[in-house]
Each structure stands twice: as C-alpha cells, then as structure tokens.
Design brief:
With about 325 residues, the chain is of the alpha+beta class. Helix content is about 30%, strand content about 35%. It has 4 helices and 13 strands.
C-alpha cells in the first residue's frame, strides 16, 4: 500500500509542477479579459473653477464644475466586430457630460473606443470615433493592460485626437493599494469645438469657420493605476481651455473658457478602489498565487512520496522464533 500511495503522490507532484507554467503563460493570456457588457459612471469635479459665461462671453469664477463620465459596453457591436476580426473585442460607448454649478450643460462629447479584450490594444474598425469624428487611436485610452509594467505608455488624447507618451513616475500608496503613478502634459494645442455647446444660434461644428475664433487646450493629466488589473483607481487633470481671436470675442485676443483642477469625487474614488480590489484576486490566482504555490505543493508531495517509497523498501527485521508448545503426555507411559 505504501508503494502504491507513493506512486500516486509522485504523479500528483509532477502534474502540479507542470500545471504551474501552463496557468501563467497559457491560461492567463486567454482567460483574463475585459467583460464586453461593462457599465460604469464616474463623477469628477473642479472646485473652484473658471468658466466662460456663453451669454456674456466673459470668464467667471464659479464654485464648481462637474464632469459626469459614463461608460457602457456595447455587446452587439463587440460581437459584430469579433466576427469580422476573429479577435475578442470590447466596444465602449462613453459620454463626457460637462455641467456648470447651476446644472446647465456646458458640453457633451461622445466617444466609441474599440480594443482587444485581453491586451487592451486598440482595434481599428468602423465606428471608432470622438464626438462624431472618425479617429484611429494608437495606445491606451481608458485602461492599462493587465500586469502593467513600470514604463512609459502611449496614451490617446480625445481633445487633440493624437497620441503621446504618458510617463511612469514611480510607485505610490493609494487607499491601501500599491499603485503606479503616470503623468502626461499636453502643451497648448488648437482643438475642435465640441459639437454640443450652449451657444444660442450658432452651430458649434462651423463656429471656427463662421467667426474665426479658435479653441485651445492644455492639461496636466495624472493617473494612479493598479498594476495587477491595469485599472485606474484615481485620475486628476489640471485643465485649461481658451478661446482665441475672431469676431466672437469682440476684439479681445483670448478669453478663458475653462480652468480648474479636476478630481474624482471622493465617493466615486472609494467605489472604484473597492471594485478594483475585488477584481485583483482572479488575476493574482492565475499569475502569482497558483504558479508559485503549485510547485511548492508539488515539492511537498514529492518529498512525501520519496519518504513512503523509502519506508516501503526498508528491510524488515526477522521475527523472533516462538517457543515450542509442550507436547501432551502419553497416557500409557504415565505412572500408575
């Protein structure tokens, strides 16, 4: 029985040790993926802010400006593009709704972001757009890859419709998580007007052509990214926009359209951190806990198998001879 048990333990040890690299290098790249039907809402605020009053075209100090970002997975479009490309694809339809302190809309910018569910690399397909304009993204936009590395990445900027490096700046501790901090500065760049703006009687899509007024933008962008899932747990921007020249400004060279330090609202930070913490375990199981734990368990089983095998092969000590049983007396030879 010992020898049979040692063979079973040896087989288990070999199986667990062989399973370890398969989990990390074969199963993980295929099983770790962004769900196609994800829905998320984030509220960001700038307190205080400078905001253009489109009625008087004067910049005013306001208590706060609010940006509501919604993200919705488009499962139907994902399946359609998957049939055409043969890849696992995620389609995110997003909307950035900017509103002033009175709740009135300042601008709305819709986007469609198409990317590989496993690697988060952009997938170029019809429908990829920013504010109704077709784009061809390069680099990341909303999410870093699983197992984010300590290096610079290429990041797509929706305002300029261009990609540029976003720089790794080190490890930070954020709400109990060790995260990677990334930073990017976009210099002053002329950008299109949002198609949906609160300018009475003016078509924003033809505003620059009609008035000669241009819109300029710069920002310092900061992200705190969980390196396991690649999900940002916090994001901030020091953001500035200006309108320059043209007849719209009545002879002025420029006017501030928006300026402020945009931060995630604290309750949404807490919700995002809790969500990311819940998603870390499946990734860690496939990349760390099981790939490292299974060889250790296999080594323990191998040691136990060798111990049982050695016990089975150990020579047994000869048994001690038993004392002869007394023979019964012959009744005929017994004395009378």
């Amino acid at each position: 029985m010992r020898r049979r048990a040692s063979l079973v333990l040896l087989a288990l040890a070999v199986f667990l040790t062989a399973l370890s690299p398969l989990l990390r290098w074969y199963a993980f790249p295929r099983l770790a993926k962004v769900p196609a039907g994800q829905y998320q809402e984030v509220v960001m605020e700038a307190r205080p802010a400078t905001l253009l009053d489109y009625g008087s075209l004067r910049a005013e100090k306001v208590e706060r400006l609010t940006i509501v970002q919604t993200l919705k997975g488009n499962v139907e479009e994902s399946e359609r593009i998957e049939r055409d490309t043969g890849r696992d694809v995620v389609v995110w339809d997003t909307l950035s709704h900017v509103q002033g302190p009175d709740g009135a809309m300042v601008s709305q910018i819709p986007e469609r972001y198409i990317f590989d569910a496993h690697t988060q690399d952009p997938v170029h397909a019809p429908g990829e757009m920013v504010d109704g304009t077709p784009v061809r993204r390069e680099g990341i936009a909303f999410k870093w890859p699983f197992l984010t590395e300590k290096r610079d990445y290429t990041h797509f900027d929706a305002q300029t419709r261009t990609s540029a490096p976003i720089h790794y700046r080190g490890v930070r501790t954020f709400h109990g998580l060790d995260v990677y901090y990334f930073e990017q500065t976009v210099p002053w760049t002329k950008v299109p007007f949002p198609r949906k703006m609160p300018i009475p009687g003016i078509d924003a899509s033809t505003l620059e052509k009609a008035t000669g007024t241009t819109r300029w933008y710069t920002t310092k962008r900061m992200f705190w990214v969980d390196p396991v899932t690649g999900a940002p747990v916090n994001g901030e921007e020091i953001h500035r926009e200006e309108l320059r020249g043209g007849t719209l400004l009545g002879g002025r060279d420029k006017v501030t359209a928006f300026a402020g330090h945009v931060k995630m609202r604290p309750d949404y930070v807490d919700h995002t951190v809790a969500l990311v913490k819940s998603q870390r375990l499946p990734v860690l199981l496939l990349t760390s806990y099981l790939p490292w734990g299974l060889p250790v368990l296999g080594g323990g089983l191998l040691a136990l198998a060798l111990f049982l095998e050695a016990r089975a092969r150990r020579p047994r000590a000869p048994a001690a001879p038993s004392a002869p049983e007394p023979r019964p007396s012959d009744p005929e030879s017994a004395p009378a």
